[in-house]
Amino acid sequence: MNSQYKTSKNKAKIVQFSDEKKSLPDGSKVIYAESENKIVVFHKIPFEKNMSYVFDRKTAAVKVNGKIGSDLDKKRMLELGDYFLNNAKDEELITIDVNLKENT
Q1: How far is it, in rounded angstroms, from Cα 31 to Cα 44?
Q2: Which residues contact 19 (CB under 8 A, 6 or more apart)?
């Protein structure tokens, strides 16, 4: 991801289209989020099951819809991120900064 989306400790960034009606050329929607520990890509495909990919930066493991994923799933997650960024203009996106709750 572009350096403008880098996160600091106890913070997360969420990147998505600013217009909720906007979609990618294939009609799908992608939401990208990242924190210091994880990267999440949520993919909503019309008339199909939504897909969520969660990549753990420390272990390099990926989960897809809550289940352990494979190297092919990691590749698909990267392809989705590329597809999203290659088909979205910066002015169409909104970045939301989130403060994460600290573990006590």
Answers
A1: 9
A2: 92
Could you give the CA distance from residue 81 to residue 65 in angstroms, rounded to a whole number?
17
- Taking alpha carbons only, the member of 54, 58, 61 closest to residue 40 is 54
Cα four-point dihedral sign 4, 24, 41, 57:
negative
Host H or E run for residue 64 = strand 62-64
Phi and psi of 14, rounded to 5°? -125, 130
Q: Which tens digit of pLDDT belongs to each residue from 30-83? A: 999 999 999 999 999 999 999 999 999 999 999 999 999 999 999 999 999 999
Nearest alpha carbon to residue 37 among 65, 64, 17, 7: 7
Tell me the C-alpha distance between 59 and 62, whole Å: 9
Quickly list H helices, the chain.
Answer: 71-86
Distances (CA, A) of 17 to 9, 68, 76, 80, 100: 25, 28, 20, 15, 22
